[in-house]
Amino acid sequence: xxxKNGKDFWAGAMxxxxxxxxxxxxxxxxxxxxxxxxxxxFPTVLGGLLTVLGAxxxxxxxxxxxxxxxxxxxxxxTLAVAGLVLTIVMYASAGWWAGLGxxxxxxxxxxxxxxxxSLIAAFxxxxxxxxxxxxxxxxxxxxxxxxxxxxxxxxxMSAWGGHEFKLREAVISFVVLAIFSVATFIYGxxxxxxxxxxxx
Amino acid sequence: MEQLISNLxxxxxxxxxxxxxxxxxxxxxxxxxxxxxxxxGPVATIAMLLPVTFTLSPISALxxxxxxxxxxxxxxxTTAILxxxxxxxxxxxxxxxxxxxxxxxxxxAALGMAAIGSFIAGTFSxxxxxxxxxxxxxxxxxxxxxEYTSLMVLGLIAATVLAHGSLIKAIAMVLLGLLLGLVGxxxxxxxxxxxxxxSELSDGIGFVGVAMGVFGFAxxxxxxxxxxxxxxxxxxxxxxxNLMPTLQDFKDCSGAIVRGTLLGSALGILPGGGALLxxxxxxxxxxxxxxxxxxxxxxxxxxxxxxxxxxxxxxQTSFIPLxxxxxxxxxxxxxxxxxxxxxxxxxGPQVMTERPExxxxxxxxxxxxxxxxVVLNLPMIGxxxxxxxxxxxxxxxxxxxxxxxxxYSISNSPFDVMLTALFGIVGYVFVKLxxxxxxxxxxxxxxxxxxxxxxxAMLLSRGNPMTFVERPISAVxxxxxxxxxxxxxxxxxxxxxxxAFVED
Lengths: 200, 504
Fold this sequence. Notes:
Largest interface: A-B, 71 and 65 residues
Strand content of chain A: under 5%
Helix content of chain A: over 70%
Oligomer: heterodimer
Number of domains of chain B: 1
Shape of chain A: extended
Structural class of chain A: mainly alpha
Largest sheet of chain A: none
Radius of gyration of chain B: 22 Å
Number of helices of chain A: 7
Strand order of the largest sheet of chain B: 1-2
Order of helices and strands of chain A: HHHHHHH
Strand content of chain B: under 5%
Number of domains of chain A: 3
Distance between the termini of chain A: 65 Å
Structural class of chain B: mainly alpha
Order of helices and strands of chain B: HHHHHHHHEEHHHHHHHHHHHHHH
Number of helices of chain B: 22
């Protein structure tokens, strides 16, 4: 058997994984009867249907007339394995870290984030992981560091994620956008966000 | 008839208040802006603004968001004609003849005709909504849970039939959307489902995050991945003069505008329909019936007038299922449901009777908005064109920033931002695997509703699933859904469907 349509192959695998996953998790809830459906009833039915359709798409990949390479997106085995190993290590050592005190927790979070990052970076092009990392950083920096610094991180980093990066341009658009967003979001709309780092 | 006039009077009373005029203007201008800019569409914009609308009154919020959708249809044609890039997916076909007209030095006539056609279509379809929505809502009020369940099945099936690409994948995406919609606390039993012990997930996955991740972020990443072709754009900026088409143009286009408007209005009402489908269908129809068919693709003005009228008509009539049944027909309407829910309004037929000012105000505002678009936009085209010279590498960080602030402010927590990033990855994978995300979004919105109605229907029928075929309205809807599925699988239809979507 040769895989002819790589896109169908992966799509089918994805649907099967979701369908089976939802059905397995749904097992811990009550099924109920068709008269009084429990919380597990509808998800189990949907998950079953999804698995069946996923299987059809999956097997169609072997007989499809449309040809696509199996390498649908760039995949980096080293990063995937490293991320996976780090995740397992971090998961297993969670108790050990907790015993080391407050500063260690920060390191633990950092390593956890690194594991997640390499898993994301394992598949997908540079814009994918650089931009999404910038987005997540923005989310977590907004409260402690304020809108201006978080904006700087987001704008400069995401501009760097594209293919034509010019630092001068990125800095100028940061200044313009920072002024604009402080004026609109904080003064205009009154969103409860700090402008500068919260030192208090 | 008298009822209709008094209703419309009520509507215009609401729509013409200073505040609502302002938000209508803001909406249509923003819509035109994102319509002109390729790479950002109404879905991402509305998702971005949802948290902001929280601070507005319900009617102002809905007027503004609706304005973004139909405003984008006006803006999209500008880019299509002048740059040969679809500013909006629904103006893909406008590129074919519009750009050729621009090369022949007739960009002004093409732009003018697109705007005038859109305005005529907008006026007509506003009338269609005012006429057809009330009787439809009256029927819908008699619907029981069985009818609602079948209606949702029909809506979702229709959405998959009209999506491009593989039918099986589209149905699988609907199922996945329904499942994702079920994450969170089950209303009947109070059990928190599929939340992996994360307390933020017990209210369900945030709709804005899903929509913005799958449509907004994923699109930016895809745009950046396919390395830039910004260099070879030829913008016909200086050649735009004399926006008024000639009398001959009007004569040539009157048939195309009428056909485009009628077809667009009809296709907009269908579940799964909307601006995109309308413009494709109108262009294909016009190419078949027009006396000028030999010139199509070489700068026929009918090839601009018909799809541009149709996409505006379709954009507006797609509000009908939303306003009367509470069922979204495309992702933009799914977001409108989100907006109504944020404001504490349950979408459905009762909106018309309980909140008439909301319903009729919105309809009236559509006509007002169309008028603003045609009056204000034509003189402003020069300004919109200037925006096109801003390179994408400067635009997308700004888009990201607005998205992030919007998502963050939903619950003031970084969790939603992270979730959105996660759905950005998911959306990227979907695009790579040729899985259309639109059916997923519809399923996501309808998941909890469908489960609730299914439960009630089964409880009422004491567990007898025959209730869905024994009740006549429900049976008809299921039959239509089955019919749609069957004809899509038929070889002949399948072939034309593939061809229709290959055209771009």
